[in-house]
Amino acid sequence: MLTTWQVLVSGPLLGPDEALSRAVVRSVPDAVTERLADLGNIPVAVPVLAAAMAYSAWRSRRWAPALTAGAAMALVPALVVPLKEWTARPGPLEPWAAGYFPSGHTATSAVAYLGAALLITPYARRPWPVVAALVLTAATATGLVLRGFHWPLDVLASCFLCVPLLLAVRRSTRRRH
Known about the structure:
Layout: H1 2-9, H2 14-24, H3 30-38, H4 42-60, H5 64-87, H6 104-120, H7 128-147, H8 152-174
Helix pairs in contact: 1-8, 3-7, 4-5, 4-6, 5-6, 5-8, 6-7, 6-8
């Protein structure tokens, strides 16, 4: 909410947001940052979630957690696209274009990887799924900012946007029938 308000009214966080972006964009070779940003592409992230959904349903013999995770992923574009249209924020490297806020790639990676981790963590001996999911989501967000595809506030807003979706997945994995 705070991040959206900042974008809509050109709030005080936009100056530091733009300064940080100018300082880091293209500070790492594009070949690296593009690969990191690609982790948020639907063909990369969603199959990870789908595999975790299948594994969770098979192991638990319950469909609710897997379906909740699938619904969370389906809600990502339903939430992100209207916000992109409403805010019409230009991109860091494309000031003539609009629709960069919030980051759909960050939201996709967060819900896919963290949703998958929440589904398989009950069957893992260690917390590695959550750690791996956090690393993949952070790598996606970092790649998007360093490449200049998104402002830092764009990716931060997406992370905030995903919290209730992921809490629903977490809640569904803890229910017992």
